[in-house]
Amino acid sequence: MNPWLLSIPLAYLLGSIPFGYLLVKIFRNEDIRATGSGNIGATNVARSGAKGLGIATLLLDAGKSFLAVKIAQHLAPGDWDLAVVVAVAAILGHVFPIWLGFRGGKGVASALGVMLALSPAAAACTFGVFLVVVLLTRYVSLASIIGSATFPLFGLYFIPHRSPIVIDGLLFIPLLVIIKHRENIRRLIAGTESRFGKKKAEA
Ligand code: NKO
């Protein structure tokens, strides 16, 4: 079977598994969308009081999209265009999952997964930027936004194949992630965004 026909729908399906939602539903019988920021991502799962589930959400959300890209790389070795299109498909699955009425997460952990599969060096640099911003500000959202903005620079530096599809994909992914943070951006400007590790009253 044509690797494109197989790996793109598979990437969307893998990406659309809402691990944060599922873990909180299964282990706490709660709807993560009803607490905190309402997001299904690792940060909000941890914020809801389930630190372990938050870490599991991060690993599984990153792992699913990592796997999607790895499958494409296995089916069509050296095909950077396919790898990047599959990365986009996996993130679209996470952000617009058919199972949750197309209302999914913000794509940060899933972007980490695809970056690790595309270029571990670019992923490490982007993660470094993310970490510095989190440690300085304790705003995970701000770190995700600034990390996203730097990702295309690292990606284009480390990825040897700079075709239009690769360049467009490396720009599209962070743009989508940043757009998904528009509520966070409003709260950051208003000074009401919650800081990681602090209770709402002291945030
Ligand atoms: O609940 O709206 P919220 O405060 O939860 O959540 C905001 C947050 C949403 O994202 C997540 C996933 C958190 C994962 C944390 C570790 C991942 C480090 C990834 C670094 C790379 C980020 C750049 C993306 C590149 C396009 O933001």
UniProtKB/TrEMBL annotation:
**Which GO molecular function entries does the Swiss-Prot or TrEMBL record give?**
acyl-phosphate glycerol-3-phosphate acyltransferase activity
BP terms from Gene Ontology? phospholipid biosynthetic process
- Report TM segments: 6-24, 80-102, 108-132, 139-159, 165-181
Q: Does the keyword Ribonucleoprotein apply?
A: no
Which EC numbers does the record give? 2.3.1.275
Look up the record and name the pathway of this protein: Lipid metabolism; phospholipid metabolism
| Catalyses which reaction(s) | an acyl phosphate + sn-glycerol 3-phosphate = a 1-acyl-sn-glycero-3-phosphate + phosphate
Chief subcellular location: membrane
Top-level taxon of origin: Bacteria
* Keywords, ordered alphabetically: Acyltransferase, Cell membrane, Lipid biosynthesis, Lipid metabolism, Membrane, Phospholipid biosynthesis, Phospholipid metabolism, Transferase, Transmembrane, Transmembrane helix
Keyword Mitochondrion applies? no
InterPro entries cross-referenced by the UniProt entry: G3P_acylTferase_PlsY
Cross-referenced SMART domains: G3P_acyltransf
Q: How does it assemble?
A: Probably interacts with PlsX.
The protein's matches in PANTHER family, at most eight in alphabetical order, are given as: GLYCEROL-3-PHOSPHATE ACYLTRANSFERASE-RELATED (PTHR30309:SF0), INNER MEMBRANE PROTEIN YGIH (PTHR30309)
Describe the family membership recorded for this protein in Swiss-Prot or TrEMBL: Belongs to the PlsY family.
Q: Which HAMAP family match?
A: PlsY
**Job description of the protein:** Catalyzes the transfer of an acyl group from acyl-phosphate (acyl-PO(4)) to glycerol-3-phosphate (G3P) to form lysophosphatidic acid (LPA). This enzyme utilizes acyl-phosphate as fatty acyl donor, but not acyl-CoA or acyl-ACP.
Q: What is this protein called in UniProt? A: Glycerol-3-phosphate acyltransferase
